[in-house]
Specification:
Blueprint (H helix, E strand, L loop, with lengths): L3 E4 L2 E4 L4 H15 L8 H14 L9 H21 L3 H14 L10 H8 L2 H22 L13 H19 L2 E3 L5 E3 H6 L5 H21 L3 E7 L24 H22 L4 E8 L5 E9 L4 H12 L9 H4 L1 E5 L7 H11 L9 E2 L5 E2 L2 E3 L2 E3 L1 H12 L4 E4 L5 H6 L12 H10 L2 E4 L5 E5 L3 H7 L11 E12 L2 E13 L2 E7 L6 E2 L25 H4 L13 H4 L23
Antiparallel strand pairs: 1-2, 3-4, 3-19, 5-7, 5-8, 6-7, 6-13, 9-10, 11-12, 14-15, 16-17, 17-18
Length: about 575
C-alpha cells in the first residue's frame, strides 16, 4: 500500500514529487471516503498503480545527484567483478547480467574490452540511468494525469523545464570550447554546431527543400498526393480529450509503445502494398497528442489508380487491433487528397514542420482531437508548444521525420563538400548532382545575403535515378576504416571521405574535411624531483633525464563549484532557475 508522509503540514504519497504526491493522496482519500470495511475497487486500483510507480531503486523524486551516486555505486560493482573475473568473455556476460537486472540496456559493442570499459565507467551509467529515469518519470506523469491539455500538453512541466535547462547548459558548454583545424582556423564549438543539422533553422530548411523536390518529381510523374493521419487505438491514450479525465480503456502504454504500434501498422501496410504493386513515396511526421500518445501525419505520392487500394490496405491493418471500438472507423485513419487548387503539398506540410521546430506561422497548436495548445508559463518563463514537442521527442527517443522512397540524404550532404575541380572528369549525373547541391549567394548594398542560385533537390533525385530505386541509386558515400581514439580506447569506425558512382565504384571523388582538435586540452605533465636536504641538486648536476623533465604547474586549491555546475548536476534556486553560485565554497 502507498506510504503516506506529511511535510510542512501537507500529506502526500511518499516516493512521488510533492505536487504529484499531494494530488495522489487527495484521490486516495476521495476513493475511500466514508468506506467502512473492505476498500472499494477504485481505491485498490489506484493504490496498486501508486505502488508500481514508487517501488523502484530510483524513486521518482530522486535528484540528479542521487542518480550520479547510484551510477558510481553500480560502476564500482562492475569494477569489483573485474578484479576477480579475468576472462573477458565471462566478465562481459557478468556485466551484461548486472545491467539487465537494473533495467539498463547493455552496451552493444562487439569488442569485449569496449563493453567492460563502459560498464566500469560512472559516466556511462549516468547517461543510461538518466535516460531510464526520465522515461519512467514521464510515464508516471502520464499515468497520473500530469500530461494533458490543461495540466501541460505533450510532456509534464517538470520534464520540459529539465530539457530547457539541459539545452542551456549544453549551449554554455559548447561556447566554452574552442576547436582548431589543421589550417589554423579556430571556432567556438557552438558556432561549429550551428553550421550543421543541429541548427534547427538549417534542419527545417533542408526538410522543406527535400520535400519540395519530392513534390516537383511527383508533378513530373503525374502522381497525386494524399495527406494521411494515422492514430492509435483507445488503449494507448491516457487522457480523454473532451473531458480531460483518465481514459478507462488506458492500459499503461508509453509513447514509445504507441510509436512501435504505428511502425508495425506501417510495416504491414508496406508489405501489402509491395504485393499489390503499389509504391508510395513521401514524408511522415510523428507528433504527440495532448496526452503524449504518438500519431503520424504523412504526405504520400502515388499513381492516381493506386489511391483507393492504398487506403484500403492502410485501414485494414490500422483496424486490426480493436477495430470495432467506438470511433475507430471514423478516426483511426483519416485521408485527404491534396488539391493543387488549394496549394502545393509542400504548403500542406509546412505547418506540421513548423509545429515541431519554431511555431513560425502556425498560430495555435490544434491536435486532431481538437485540443488547443498555447504558450504556457512554467516557473518563471513561458514555454512554447514547439519546446514541449522537442522535449517529448527527446525524452522518448522518437524520430520525428522520415522520408519514404526517396534517395538518401547522406550523399547529398557529402556532395556539397566536394570542390568543383574534383568532379571535372565525373559522369554527367554526378556533375548534375553536384550542381543541384550547390547554393550560390551574394551580398547586396545593404549587407543582406541574397540567394542567386538555390539548391534543387528535384535535380538531385533525377541524378540519383529517380524515386523508389531502393539499393539501385547511382551515387553512394565513399568510406574508409579509421581507428578513432575515444573515451574507451581505439575504435574502428567508417569515416566518410567523399562519393563514388555505383557504375564505377573504384573511382572516388574526395570531399573536403578537416581534422579538429580542442585548443588547450592537452597539458604537459612531467616528473619533478623531490626538494629535500638529501637531494638538492642543481640543474647542471642533475641527470639528463631529470633536467629535461617539465616541471608541473602549481595546483590551485580544489573548487568543486565548476563540477557541480556541469552536466552532471542540476542546481536550482528557490525560483527553479539554474544557479551555480549555490555550490560556491565558503570559508
Amino acid at each position: 500500500m502507498p506510504v503516506i508522509q506529511q511535510e510542512n503540514g501537507r500529506r502526500s504519497v511518499k516516493g512521488l514529487p510533492q505536487s504529484w504526491g499531494v494530488r495522489a493522496y487527495r484521490e486516495l482519500s476521495a476513493a475511500q471516503a466514508g468506506v467502512i470495511g473492505p476498500m472499494p475497487e477504485r481505491y485498490k486500483t489506484l493504490a496498486a498503480m501508486l505502488d508500481g510507480l514508487t517501488d523502484s531503486e530510483i524513486p521518482l523524486d530522486a535528484t540528479d545527484a542521487q542518480i550520479c551516486m547510484l551510477a558510481e555505486r553500480w560502476a564500482n560493482d562492475c569494477a569489483s567483478n573485474a578484479a576477480t573475473i579475468h576472462d573477458a568473455t565471462t566478465l562481459r556476460q557478468r556485466m551484461e547480467f548486472i545491467c539487465g537486472v537494473r533495467g539498463i540496456e547493455p552496451p552493444g559493442e562487439e569488442d569485449d574490452q569496449q563493453v567492460i570499459r563502459r560498464c566500469t565507467d560512472p559516466a556511462w551509467w549516468r547517461r543510461n540511468l538518466r535516460k531510464v529515469f526520465n522515461r519512467k518519470f514521464e510515464h508516471a506523469a502520464i499515468r497520473l494525469g500530469r500530461v494533458s491539455g490543461s495540466a501541460g500538453a505533450y510532456v509534464s512541466n517538470e520534464t520540459v523545464q529539465k530539457r530547457i535547462s539541459q539545452n542551456r547548459r549544453n549551449r554554455k558548454a559548447l561556447a566554452a570550447v574552442t576547436m582548431e583545424n589543421e589550417n589554423g582556423q579556430r571556432y567556438q564549438l557552438d558556432d561549429l554546431a550551428d553550421k550543421g543539422m543541429g541548427n534547427k533553422k538549417l534542419r527545417k530548411g533542408e526538410l522543406m527543400l527535400r520535400f519540395a523536390g519530392c513534390d516537383a518529381i511527383a508533378k513530373e510523374r503525374a502522381d497525386v498526393g494524399l495527406f494521411v493521419t494515422l492514430t492509435c487505438p483507445s488503449k494507448f491514450h491516457a487522457i480523454l480529450s473532451k473531458s480531460d479525465t483518465i481514459n478507462p480503456n488506458y492500459q499503461g502504454a508509453t509513447p514509445r509503445d504507441a510509436q512501435d504500434h504505428l511502425t508495425d501498422v506501417w510495416a504491414r501496410t508496406r508489405a501489402q502494398n509491395d504485393r499489390d504493386g503499389i509504391q508510395p513515396y513521401g514524408l511522415r511526421v510523428v507528433e504527440p497528442h495532448h496526452d503524449g500518445c504518438a500519431h503520424w501525419h504523412m504526405v504520400m505520392f502515388m499513381a492516381p489508380e493506386h489511391v483507393e487500394q492504398f487506403t484500403k490496405n492502410l485501414k485494414r491493418h490500422a483496424l486490426a487491433v480493436d477495430g470495432d471500438e467506438p470511433g475507430a472507423h471514423a478516426h483511426r485513419v483519416a485521408t485527404e487528397a491534396i488539391d493543387p487548387a488549394k496549394g502545393s503539398a509542400t504548403g500542406y506540410l509546412a505547418k506540421y514542420l513548423s509545429k515541431n521546430f519554431d511555431d513560425e506561422h502556425v498560430g495555435e497548436h490544434v491536435d486532431e482531437d481538437g485540443t488547443i495548445s498555447k504558450p504556457k508559463r512554467v516557473g518563471r518563463e513561458v514555454v512554447t508548444p514547439a519546446q514541449r514537442v522537442e522535449a517529448w521527442a527527446a525524452v522518448w527517443g522518437i524520430r520525428q521525420f522520415q522520408f519514404v522512397g526517396t534517395p538518401p540524404v547522406t550523399p547529398w550532404r557529402e556532395t556539397r563538400r566536394i570542390e568543383a575541380d574534383k568532379i571535372a572528369d565525373a559522369p554527367d549525373h554526378v556533375k548534375a548532382a553536384w550542381l543541384a547541391c550547390q547554393r550560390e549567394t551574394t551580398t547586396d548594398e545593404h549587407g543582406e545575403v541574397v540567394v542567386t542560385k538555390p539548391a534543387d533537390y528535384a535535380v538531385y533525385i533525377r541524378a540519383q535515378g529517380g524515386v523508389l530505386q531502393g539499393r539501385d541509386y547511382r551515387i553512394h558515400v565513399a568510406e574508409r576504416l579509421k581507428a578513432v581514439e575515444g573515451r574507451y580506447g581505439l575504435v574502428d569506425r567508417h569515416v566518410p571521405t567523399g562519393i563514388y558512382c555505383a557504375s564505377a565504384p573504384h573511382v572516388q571523388y574526395a570531399s573536403t574535411r578537416y581534422e579538429w582538435r580542442r585548443v588547450g586540452l592537452a597539458v604537459g605533465v612531467g616528473l619533478r624531483g623531490p626538494w629535500s636536504p638529501v637531494n638538492n641538486c642543481t640543474a647542471d648536476d642533475a641527470p639528463f633525464w631529470e633536467a629535461a623533465a617539465a616541471y608541473s604547474a602549481e595546483v590551485p586549491p580544489f573548487d568543486d563549484s565548476e563540477w557541480f555546475g556541469s552536466f552532471d548536476f542540476d542546481c536550482f534556486d528557490k525560483f527553479g532557475d539554474y544557479n551555480p553560485d549555490l555550490f560556491t565554497q565558503r570559508e
